[in-house]
């Protein structure tokens, strides 16, 4: 039965499911069934192919920039003090 559910999942992926998988792919490696579901769906779905390209561009931009918040030394000290007060 599990095998049949996997086949159904791979062949019947909707745009909503595939867009979730594309987003999940940013955070974790997809399971084989998830990966195949996404690939097979994107063969026929131009919108999901575009969405994946957009997500890849965003990932590349984030990796390139690696933006870090610029906090003053005073702000860092206040945050550290509040965190220590809360943990007591």
Cα end-to-end separation: 52 Å
Rg over C-alpha atoms, rounded to the nearest angstrom: 20 Å
Q: How many DSSP-defined strands?
A: 0
Outline type: elongated
Secondary-structure element string: HHHHH
Count of helix runs: 5
Q: Give average pLDDT, whole number.
A: 84
Q: Can you give the helix content as a percent range?
A: over 70%
Biggest pleated sheet:
none
Uncertain spans, ≥5 residues at pLDDT below 50? Answer: none
Structural class: mainly alpha
Compose a concise summary of this entry.
With 88 residues, the protein is mostly helical. The protein contains five helices and no strands. The N and C termini lie far apart (52 Å).
Looking at this protein, list some descriptive labels.
88 residues; mainly alpha; 81% helix; 0% strand
Topology of helices and strands:
Layout (H helix, E strand, L loop, with lengths): L1 H10 L3 H13 L4 H13 L1 H20 L7 H15 L1
Explained architecture:
With 88 residues, this protein is mostly helical. The protein is elongated, with a radius of gyration of 20 Å. The model has no long low-confidence stretch (mean pLDDT 84).
């Amino acid at each position: 039965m599990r095998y049949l559910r996997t086949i159904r999942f791979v062949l019947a992926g909707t745009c909503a499911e595939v867009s979730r998988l594309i987003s999940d792919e940013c955070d974790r490696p997809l399971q084989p069934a998830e990966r195949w579901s996404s690939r097979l769906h994107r063969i026929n779905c131009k919108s999901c192919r575009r969405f994946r390209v957009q997500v890849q561009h965003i990932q590349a931009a984030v990796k390139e920039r690696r933006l870090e918040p610029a906090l003053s030394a005073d702000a860092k000290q206040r945050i550290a003090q509040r965190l220590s007060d809360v943990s007591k």
